[in-house]
Automatic annotation (TrEMBL):
Protein name: Cytochrome bc1 complex Rieske iron-sulfur subunit
Residue ranges occupied by any Rieske domain in the UniProt entry: 287-356
Assigned keywords, A-Z: 2Fe-2S, Cell membrane, Disulfide bond, Electron transport, Iron, Iron-sulfur, Membrane, Metal-binding, Oxidoreductase, Respiratory chain, Transmembrane, Transmembrane helix, Transport
Organism: Nocardioides bizhenqiangii
Membrane topology field: Multi-pass membrane protein
Localization (cell): Cell membrane
């Protein structure tokens, strides 16, 4: 048969040679039996292997439950490769449990289930009675080929490992509690300006801790009010996280999991605008300085970090669900699902020109929660 050139010279087939008859259907390759199809000993061994993988999965699931109650999330003693032991143990055991189930199913299907290659011709979307019946027959055949009815060992081990997978889901419900209580009412900003008693030369002396300086996030440099230009937005953290001695805070309280907790609660956005743009809320007349305002960086919807600044309007946008807060007007919500304004941190300048917090936040930071309005604190 001679190939025919169907190109029209105008890009039809780009000059390619197209055969004048369709390529013949090569058909389904001959089915070759697998060792497990012809050797009962190998079949039995594959069956035990599948059951073994399901058994390993069950063991890993039990180890997950044991790990959950053994390792404390905040326990920094058990650190593996920079990760907490709790993270490694929970992730490792649950991951292996799922992996073994996957391996067992793949092994089962490759070695023991039917491996005949089937061809289904295209047909109209509607299936006639004959097709339906054939589908049912195929399903029945497939069911029989899985050998479920003949392999109670696999069925029992599969059911056991799958049933145990519900245990982690139930255990993790425990992490829905406890309720935050008053923990969100206080942040580490409150460590500045307090009075404490220290021992000096064997004597108890009362000292006033310096007011908390506001530092640049990540690098920890305290911020001079004169450093900020109109329109600047700066991500900030309390200086105590970088320099705990200055605030009489033990290092252990600002390390590891404690550091992450403090950072997440105390994260701040600083914004400088023209002082006359600010509409101070009642009782907030002295909460800003030279047009600089400070707000919690944590969205009051479900807690995403906020950082998108509309420079001309001084609106701050949350990237998660587009809640928009007005930085000129006490952080009020002007758009989106957030239910309350961004908490504002009252700030001032210390005698060296650095920005400091006057106090802690006066309301809880982060998403709203159902205990929040129970009582005024
Ligand atoms: S978390 Fe900010 S809008 Fe949803």
């Amino acid at each position: 048969m001679e190939p025919v050139d169907h190109s029209d010279g105008h890009g039809g087939h780009g000059g390619a040679l197209v055969p004048d008859e369709p390529i013949a259907n090569p058909g389904v390759p001959e089915h070759l039996p697998r060792p497990t199809d012809v050797d009962p000993a190998k079949e039995k061994r594959a069956e035990r292997q599948v059951a073994g993988f399901f058994g390993l999965s069950a063991i890993c699931t039990i180890l997950f439950a044991v790990s959950y109650f053994t390792f404390d999330v905040g326990d920094n003693w058990h650190v593996v490769g920079g990760l907490g032991a709790s993270t490694v143990a929970l992730g490792g055991t649950l991951g292996l449990s799922l992996l073994f189930i996957g391996i067992a199913i793949i092994h089962w299907s490759r070695k023991l289930m039917g491996d005949d290659e089937l061809v289904e011709m295209r047909h109209p979307a509607y299936s006639g009675e004959a097709d339906r019946q054939r589908t049912l027959d195929d399903l029945r055949t497939g069911y029989e080929e899985t050998g479920i009815a003949r392999r109670p060992l696999i069925v029992r081990s599969a059911l056991g490992s799958l049933a145990l997978l519900g245990v982690p889901a139930v255990i993790l419900l425990r992490d829905l509690g406890p309720l935050p209580g008053d923990k969100l009412y206080h942040t580490i900003w409150g460590q500045g300006g307090r009075k404490i008693t220290v021992i000096e030369d064997g004597e108890e002396v009362e000292v006033e801790v310096p007011k908390m300086r506001i530092s640049r996030d990540a690098i920890g440099t305290p911020i001079l009010a004169s450093d900020l230009e109109i329109g600047d937005l700066v991500n900030a953290q309390p200086e105590v996280l970088f320099n705990p001695e200055r605030y009489y805070v033990p290092h252990a309280e600002v390390e590891g999991a404690a550091l992450q907790t403090h950072k997440s609660k105390a994260s701040l956005i600083l914004l400088r605008m023209e002082p006359e743009d600010i509409k101070p809320g009642k009782g907030r007349e002295d909460w800003s300085v030279n047009g600089i305002v400070a707000y919690s960086k944590i969205c009051t919807h479900v807690g995403c970090p906020i950082s998108l600044n509309e420079r001309t309007t001084h609106h701050l946008l949350c990237p998660c669900h587009q809640s928009t807060f007005d930085m000129t007007d006490s952080g009020n919500v002007i758009f989106g699902p957030a239910g309350r304004p961004l908490p504002q941190l009252p700030i001032e300048i210390d005698d060296q020109g650095y920005l400091v917090a006057q106090s802690d936040f006066t309301e809880p930071v982060g998403p709203s929660f159902w205990e929040r309005d129970y009582e005024e604190r």
